[in-house]
Amino acid sequence: MDMISKIGIAGGGQLGKMMILEAKKMGFYVTILDPSERCPAHSICDEHIVADFGDEEALRRLASSSDVVTYEFEHINAQALLRLESEGFLIYPSAGSLLLIQDKLKQKMTLQSAGIPTPAFLPADSRQEIEEAASLFGYPLMIKSRFGGYDGKGNLILASEDGIDEALYFSKGKKMAEQWVDFKLEASILACRGADGRIAVYPVAENTHIDSILRKTRAPAEISRELTDEAMNIAEKTMHAFQGVGMFCIELFITKSNGILVNEAAPRPHNSGHYTIEACRTSQFENHIRAVARLPLGDPSLVSCAVMANILGEDGACGPACASGLDRALEVPGASVHIYGKEISKPKRKMGHVTATGATLAEAESRAAAASSFLRMTAGALKMED
Ligand SMILES: Nc1ncnc2c1ncn2[C@@H]1O[C@H](COP(=O)(O)OP(=O)(O)O)[C@@H](O)[C@H]1O
Ligand SMILES: [Mg+2]
Questions:
Q1: DSSP string spanning 207-259?
Q2: Quick check: CB of 107 below 6 Å from ligand 1?
Q3: Is any atom of ligand 1 closer than 6 Å to the C-beta of 22?
Q4: Whose Cα sits closest to atom 19 in ligand 1?
Q5: pTM higher than 0.90 for the full model?
Q6: Does the pLDDT at position 381 exceed 70?
């Protein structure tokens, strides 16, 4: 196989931008595809195809101008990627992995048949199916859109049978019902699979979500050796189940009885893995680039404790983004600030993050809290949200 020197990335958001920063370190030529002319990755890519993620012709142009195509998020035209793959274009993670993962129901079925523990689930497209799920799993019941969800958009908590009509129509498209998990904590584990099949597994990290949006990640998770080993084993099994090449993130629920259930997998670097940039020998972005370029993977081990906190767009306003407080935040020892460069700030939009390292988790945590207390992302021309 020829050497890879050009990488195409579908998506030019912050994950694409952070992939490019690593790709550039190793001398790759990078083309992105993103509908937004001034997306975060725009300023540092070599070429930008401005087109929708569903645009097959544009995806074909991306593939033709690259030796390998990868993606920074999963809501793209997987059927088109499948066709491109069958014509001989190299796509990592494969279109097959993406097709399984895009559909939350097929994703869970794949995990289940690989013997990986998940919350119980059933399809939920009719009143009868929801009633059946409720009779088996009880209320509250988690209803999820099978396609297109992120940051909790696409999920609905069904408290009782009174809400069934709403649950059937709260979003378009097919749905599934999931047993409610009263978890002790949420964690995630990142893993990268090389083209040679070798797998690098990162430490388990602990995540805090507010309103289904990730706010904070702590690494390493303060869980027992047994749970850590089990999570790592689940990560390896998941990589085999999806035959992934590249970075994957596996979101986990740790139950009150110390069991692990897989919530979902993402076939890409992940927000909960941003701590790896400062705290691991090889970041999730570098390993992703290494994997898709068919190069050997780097050491994922942790070199210090780390806490990552997201910087979200301020509430109540939407407009040109304006970051402030960088000067004060960077006075905090061990703190690194990442501003994504999104043009528009919107309430709760992910605009940047801070990672603080420390000798202990407590030290990293207080540094991250101090640095984030100075950082604000405001919307320039203040316009109240309607
Ligand atoms: N079965 C469940 N029981 C309890 N909470 C859940 C369940 N599924 C999801 N959640 C909560 O909702 C959040 C978002 O759900 P998730 O399925 O990860 O969707 P998304 O694609 O939006 O990330 C999770 O991080 C978790 O906090
Ligand atoms: Mg999730």
A1: EEEETTEEEEEEES----HHHHHHHHHHHHHHHHHHT--EEEEEEEEEETTS-
A2: no
A3: no
A4: 152
A5: yes
A6: no
